[in-house]
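Quick one:
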Amino acid sequence: MPKKDPNITDPIEILPLEKKELLYQSLAEFLSDNKRQLFDRLAPMRTRHITLLLEDIYQPHNASAVMRSCDCFGIQDLHVVATRNAYNPNDQVSMGSSKWVDYFSHSDISTAYNYLREKGYRIVATTPHTNDTTISELDLSQPVALVFGTELTGLTQEAISNADAYVKIPMFGFTESFNISVSAALSLYDTTTRLRSNETIPWRLSESDILDIKLHWCLSAINDGQAIMKQLLERLGL
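Output:
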């Protein structure tokens, strides 16, 4: 999907539920049966209870691999701070996952943190710290935003100082850290596995949010999807 500006309201998301359903039914006619079945099966498994924030990732293959991991583990939102390095996923590495994952671009780490906290997230920096915990011990009762830093130097001091908590992945070798994309994949495997096995945590999306996702997926999957949606909105009086 195209990157989203967190300051702009998505016009699809403000439609009433019944109108979203009508619009999706109309757009779904342009999809194959297999694609519709995939949307119906996968959309309810997406979550926003966990999200990732990447700070100035500069290697395109790492940025792409993280997005691919988000899709594979059902993480719907990816947030990016690109103060020095532009975020440019490589589709050959991401394997088309940019069509299915929403990613938001923020101007700086402070703006990103403020936005995520307003959405109810606990900011968790992935870095060794005196007050850290292991990824398997991280409390998931509250929505969590895992923050990952650039490949060579890690998170900036500002990102570390203003985080709410700290988490690390246990290591038993000489190398001091995992590759950023490996760290993200390991963290998502652990947290999403625990999340989906705990029905006391409200990780599932609302019916309206699921429809939003399916509508955006339609726009990504259908040739000239935006133009077709505009025509449908006019025809349906939406």
